[in-house]
Amino acid sequence: MSRSPGDGRARLHLECRGVVQGVGFRPLVHRLAAELELSGEVENGPGTVRLRLEGDRPSLEAFLRRLPLLLPPGARLEPLDPVWSAAAAPAAGPFQAGVRIVTGQAVPLGVDLFASSLVADRAPCPACLVELADPADRRFGYPFISCCDCGPRFSIATAEPWTRAHTTLAPFALCPACRREFEDPSDRRFHAETIACPVCGPRLALLDGSGAPLAGSAGGDGSPAALIRSCCDLLAAGKILALQGVGGFQLLVDATNAAAVARLRRRKRRPAKPFALLVAEAEALAPFCVIDAAERRALADPAAPIVLLWRRLAATDALPGVAPGSPSLGAMLPASPLHHLLARAFGGPLVATSGNPSGEPLCIDPAEAVQRLGAGAGGPIADVFLVHDRAIARPLDDSVLQLIDGRPALLRRARGYAPEPLVLAAGPGAAPDGVVALGGDLKSAPALALDGRLWLAPHLGDLAEGRLLSRLADGLAAIERRWGGRLTRIACDAHPGYLSHQLAADQPWPQQTVQHHRAHGLAVLAEHGLPFPLLAVTWDGLGYAPGADGGPQLWGGELLLLGGPGDPSCERLVALRPSGPGPWGTPAPATAWRPSRPLSAACCCRPSPAAATAP
Known about the structure:
Strand content: 15-25%
Number of strands: 32
CATH architecture of the largest domain: Alpha-Beta Complex
Structural class: alpha+beta
Distance between the termini: 71 Å
Shape: globular
Number of domains: 4
Radius of gyration: 27 Å
CATH topology of the largest domain: DHBP synthase
Helix content: 10-25%
C-alpha cells in the first residue's frame, strides 16, 4: 500500500476510532459514499469502524474532508490516518456498486467493566419525543421508542461490536414496517439497531408485591397508557413503585408525600442520605431549586444525569424528607421514553432512587427484583413493579453531576457516560499505557489505560458487599482474557487492608501501590489538565502510610506537593495528626498540623520521624 497514489480511481482504507458505534455513523458513511458515487463497505469491529472505499480520487478526498463535518449527534471521530492504494482492475475488483454495511465477528461480553467499541445509553432525542406525543404516529405512547441518535446501548449489549444481534433486543424480530425503516437509507431509522414498535418490540407488565400480574386500577386494557395510569394512581395513593429502568430498577414515590418518603426510607434502610428527584421537564424544578442556564443544559444532556442544584427554602416544606439537611437537591429529567411517559402522566416530582436495599447491588431482572424488593424479601420495599421483557445486560447506576464555577464535574460516572473513553495526552511518556487501576474500596470505579485512551468502569459501589467484589474480580478476569498480554501493571491503594489491594495482589501483572491522598491529587490534575508541580489539598481521612516505627498510620488530611512528569517526589507540607499505631490505626485524640520532608516514591507518602512524634 502507498500513502498517496496519483489521480484517477483509488482505494481508501480508514480505521475510524472515537465514539463511532451506536450513533448512526455507518448510515452516515453509507449516505455520503452514495452521494459521492463510491463503492465498498463499512464494518463495525472491536474498538473501531473500518472503511474500505473505492472510487475517483477527488471523490474519496471529498469524503475525507466532509466526513468529520457531518457527524451525527453523540459521535466523536478521532483524527484519521488514511491509507491509499491503487484501485482493482474493473473486472476483478472485490467491491460491488454502493456501500455495504457489515458487522465484524462477535466478542462476547459478560457483566464486563469495559467495552472498547460500545457507547453510552442516551435519553430520547427530540425527534423521538415528537413521535411519542403524536397520536397519528404508530409509535405514539410507545415506551421503547428509539432511533440512531438515542436509546439503550451499553446497558443491553451482550457482545461487541455494536449490532442488534449482539443485544438483548435480538429475540425481538422486526415487523415488516420496522424492517422497511431499517433497510431504507432515506429513513432516519436506517440501521437503527434498537428499532422497535408496539407490534414487534418489548412490552410492559404491572406486577404486585409477589410478582403476580396486577389488574389496572384505572380499568385499562393492559396497554402502556393504561398501565402508566395505574402506576400514577398507586403513586398518588402513597405506594412505592419499583420501575425497571435503563440500567436497573429504581424505587419511585410521590416526592411531596411525607409519609410515603418516610416509608421508603424505613424500608430501604436509608435514614438520611438525600434522594434524587425525577421530573418531566426542567421548569417543574423552579419552585424547589435555583437553576441557571448551564445547569439546564446539563439536565437536558442526552446522558440524563442527576444534577445537584441549590435548593430554595420552600423546598424543605414542599418536599419533606427528600434531602434532609442538604443545601442541594439532586434532580434529573427522564432517561428513557418510559420515564418520560410516567413523569409526564404523574405531573409532579417523584423520588427516584436506586432499586436495591442500601449497600447492595442494583436489581436488573424482574424476578430478582420481586425476590429482593417485594413480598419475598425479609421486609418488602416495593408495593408494585412496572417491568418489561427487554433484558438488562449489566447494572448501571444513575450518574451524578455538579456545576462548579460553571463547569460540569462528574461525581459519579455511570449510565449515560460509561463506557465511552477519555482521550489521554499524546506523546511518548505523556500518559500511561497498559495499566489497570482499581481505586479504593468505597464508590469503586476501576480504570483501564490502553492505546492512548482511558476507560472508566461504571460506578460499582462498596466492595465490602461480596457481590460487588465478585463483579470486580470477574471484570479483571475478562480484562486478562482480552488484553492480558498488553498490560504492564495493576495500580491499587497502598492500604493493605483494602479489598482492592488484596485483589490486585492476586492478578498476574506487577502491582504498583499509590497512597490514597496522592491518588486524589493526581486524579484532579489529570481531569482538569493542570500542570506540574501541583499543591494538592486532600481531606479524605484514609491516607495510609507506614509510620516511623514501621506500623501503619492513617493521615486524616494532607497538603501535598506533587512533582512533575518523571519526578516521583511527593512532599507532605502539612497534615492533620495521623492515627496512632494499631492494626489499621486508631483515632487521634486531637488535631495538629506538622511539616514534613520529601517523600519517597516507593511508599508514596512516608512520614518523617518528626511528623510521627510531633505533638
